[in-house]
């Protein structure tokens, strides 16, 4: 909306019994109004669709057999790229790909000129030029790629043959050409360790579980993930640095879906030291929320050292912009969803490294760690749920040292989740009382990052996400705590 682009709205699933396309269109209009759309943007084009059947219509009464009406609307309403095919060729990669046979692939839009396979020059933003050679080119048909021999300005292409190409560099045919404006890549703000999973449940679900397999996967990720940095110097773990929790969480989610099994440590903010001063990353947080929640958000982010730089109403919504240390938003997204009843929009971007903001107050909770191995029983969990929030349900298999919940008081507690009811000949007054378990909080990778303590690991496998203590036995944790305080 802020870029001034005019949207095309597609209302899908119009064949459903509960479909109300007219109401949906009216609600989209009200949403755009709340987002500050101009009169021209509010006069948007609507296309109706049944995505499962591959049908689109410009009007609900039209007959249609395919998506031609949608494609025609895009050609009609979206302006064509403006470029001069006779000008010297220039292209700038905005994304990277990888092929096991071709190596690193550069994906980008051709700004001007015509490109064919052959020798080119790669210019860095500072003007430094080096030679390269394009050996293959592809464009896209849907999600499939198709090999081509020539492309012109306005086309989005994928090229192979330049093994050290990076995002933001300019590919051109003449070393004297002016490089395109640089694309700035945010530097990493958090770091954590990737380790081989050594829990009692290790190897049950994963296909790739060894240190060598994890290393090879991270090396492959570095070919396309330019914001990621990995330190392989330590033999016991790999230090991975990324741009926030979501960046690392996406990598872990992809790895678990591919069959990898590993454990990771608590994310820590990267602290720099320059001229004797400690510096930490700051982020700009943009929040869109209904007006009634603004007071709560201002108070919460204020406690986390956030400074509000802008606040303006947009319809029934309020947009607030904060500058806040990255430490202040670690673990906050889940709380934000609760505080705004799921109606808030939270977006952040890296600003710069600034002087350390000092201590940040957060609500502290302790961990409820199992002291035994076995299957959790509803009777025991019913007693434990009064102490805090549980992460597991009845009949879940647990091991010693596995974190099964948190405690509201902030102290760690060893518990027995497999303890059953004592059987006696005496009948108590509550013998037939039903056990009511509060639904447990399902652990995800993002939620695990938010709630894990510095002495815990997040165990990530293809089918499970678990929290565990680094030291599984309670006696070992007590001894380690004594050494830490002495």
Q: Care to describe what's here?
A:
There is one protein chain. The chain is of the alpha+beta class and 486 residues long. It folds into five domains: 8-77, no CATH class; 90-172, Translation factors (Elongation Factor Tu (Ef-tu), domain 3); 190-269, 2-Layer Sandwich (Alpha-Beta Plaits); 272-355, Alpha-Beta Plaits (2-Layer Sandwich); 366-485, Beta Barrel (OB fold (Dihydrolipoamide Acetyltransferase, E2P)). Helices cover 21% and strands 33% of the residues. It has eleven helices and 30 strands. The strands form six sheets. Strands 14, 15, 16, 17, 18, 24, 27, 28, 29 and 30 form a ten-stranded mixed β-sheet that branches. The longest helix has 14 residues, at 21-34. The termini are far apart. The mean pLDDT is 87.
Low-confidence stretches: none
Radius of gyration: 28 Å
* Count of separate DSSP helical elements: 11
The description of the largest β-sheet is:
10 strands, mixed
Q: What is the name of the CATH class of the largest domain?
A: Mainly Beta
Share of helical residues: 10-25%
Give a quick rundown of the structure.
With 486 residues, the protein is α+β, with helices and mostly antiparallel strands.
Short descriptors:
single chain; 486 residues; alpha+beta; Elongation Factor Tu (Ef-tu), domain 3; Alpha-Beta Plaits; 5 domains; ten-stranded mixed β-sheet; eight-stranded antiparallel β-sheet; 11 helices; 21% helix; globular
């Amino acid at each position: 909306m802020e870029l001034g682009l005019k949207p095309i709205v597609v209302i899908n699933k119009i064949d459903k019994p509960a479909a109300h396309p007219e109401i949906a269109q009216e609600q989209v209009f009200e949403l755009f109004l709340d987002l500050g759309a101009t009169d021209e943007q509010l006069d948007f084009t609507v296309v109706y669709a049944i995505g499962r059947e591959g049908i689109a219509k410009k009007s609900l009464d039209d007959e249609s057999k395919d998506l031609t009406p949608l494609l025609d609307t895009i050609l009609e309403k979206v302006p064509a790229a403006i470029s001069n095919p006779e000008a010297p060729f220039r292209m700038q990669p905005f994304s990277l790909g990888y092929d096991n046979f071709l190596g690193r692939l550069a994906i980008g839009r051709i700004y001007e000129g015509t490109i064919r396979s052959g020798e080119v020059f790669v210019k860095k933003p500072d003007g430094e030029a080096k030679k390269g050679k394009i050996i293959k080119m592809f464009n896209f048909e849907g999600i499939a790629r198709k090999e081509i021999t020539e492309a012109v300005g306005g086309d989005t292409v994928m090229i192979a043959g330049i093994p050290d190409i990076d995002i933001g560099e300019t590919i051109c045919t003449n070393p004297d050409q002016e490089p395109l404006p640089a694309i700035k890549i945010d530097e990493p703000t958090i770091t954590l360790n990737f380790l081989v999973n050594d829990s009692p449940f290790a190897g049950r679900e994963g296909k790739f579980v060894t240190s060598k397999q994890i290393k090879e996967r991270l090396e492959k990720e570095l070919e396309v993930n330019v914001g990621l940095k990995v330190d392989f110097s330590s033999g016991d773990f790999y230090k991975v640095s990324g741009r926030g929790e979501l960046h690392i969480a996406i990598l872990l989610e992809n790895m678990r879906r591919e069959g990898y099994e590993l454990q990771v440590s608590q994310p820590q903010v990267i602290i720099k030291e320059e001229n004797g001063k400690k510096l930490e990353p700051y982020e700009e947080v943009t929040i869109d929320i209904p007006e009634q929640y603004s007071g709560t958000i201002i108070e919460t982010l204020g406690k986390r050292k956030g400074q509000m730089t802008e606040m303006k109403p947009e319809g029934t919504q309020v947009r607030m912009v904060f500058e806040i240390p990255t430490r202040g938003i670690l673990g906050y997204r889940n709380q934000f969803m609760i505080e705004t009843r799921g109606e808030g929009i939270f977006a952040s971007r890296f600003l710069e490294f600034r002087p350390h903001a000092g201590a940040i107050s957060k609500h502290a909770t302790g961990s409820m760690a199992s002291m035994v191995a076995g299957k959790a029983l509803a009777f025991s969990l019913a007693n434990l749920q009064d102490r805090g929030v549980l992460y597991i349900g009845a009949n879940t298999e647990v091991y010693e040292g596995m974190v099964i919940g948190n405690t509201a008081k902030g102290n760690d507690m060893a518990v027995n989740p497999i303890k059953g009811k004592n059987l006696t000949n005496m009948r108590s007054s509550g013998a037939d009382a039903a056990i009511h378990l509060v639904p447990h909080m399902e652990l995800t990778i993002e939620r695990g990052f938010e709630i894990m303590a510095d002495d815990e690991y997040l165990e990530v496998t293809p089918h499970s996400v678990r929290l565990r203590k680094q030291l599984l036995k309670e006696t070992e944790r007590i001894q380690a705590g004594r050494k830490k305080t002495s």
